[in-house]
């Protein structure tokens, strides 16, 4: 009769027979295994009669906050600017011949003039004053940050300027 049963049906019957034998064991064995797996090794020392030892309390941790002084590089100021003299001539209709001869002798026979209108001259003077103002403000900012970031052994702004002048002199002499 077994030959007439297809393989898959024969296989299902065989599996069912195995479960009839295994099922009573599984009802007792699986819960015991689950209990052992879930409790892990923590229950073993108590199971064998050993007392669980409590770990010692952690050592006291002290937090010490100590400021570390920063060494901020204070670069020297740039060298002072060196300006060349500029010659200005006022040329009008009345003194044109006289001024043109003067310029020709200065230039060796050539007559070349760069001219500014009175408004152009005022604009140039205003621009120079703005550059001067800007440089002064930048210097004040630099001195402020030097004073704010000086170390305990630092110097005041005046001492720093004197020291910087000496450094600049030394650089120029090299």
How does the SSE layout of this entry go?
Elements: H1 7-39, H2 44-47, H3 96-107, H4 118-148, H5 157-173
Structure description:
The protein is mostly helical and 174 residues long. It has helices at residues 7-39, 44-47, 96-107, 118-148, 157-173. The radius of gyration is 50 Å and the shape is elongated. The termini are far apart. The model has no long low-confidence stretch (mean pLDDT 76).
Structural class determined from secondary elements: mainly alpha
Shape, per Cα inertia axes = elongated
User: What about the largest sheet?
Assistant: none
The proportion of residues in beta strands is under 5%
Number of strands: 0
Instruction: Please mark out the parts with pLDDT under 50 across 5 or more consecutive residues, or reply none.
Output: none
Measured between the Cα atoms of the first and last residue, the distance is 117 Å
Helical content, roughly?
55-70%
Q: Helix segment count?
A: 5
Mean of residue pLDDT? 76
Alpha-carbon Rg, integer? 50 Å
N-to-C series of helices and strands: HHHHH
Overview features:
56% helix, single chain, 5 helices, 174 residues, elongated, mainly alpha
Summarize this structure briefly.
The chain is mainly α and 174 residues long. The protein has helices at 7-39, 44-47, 96-107, 118-148, 157-173.
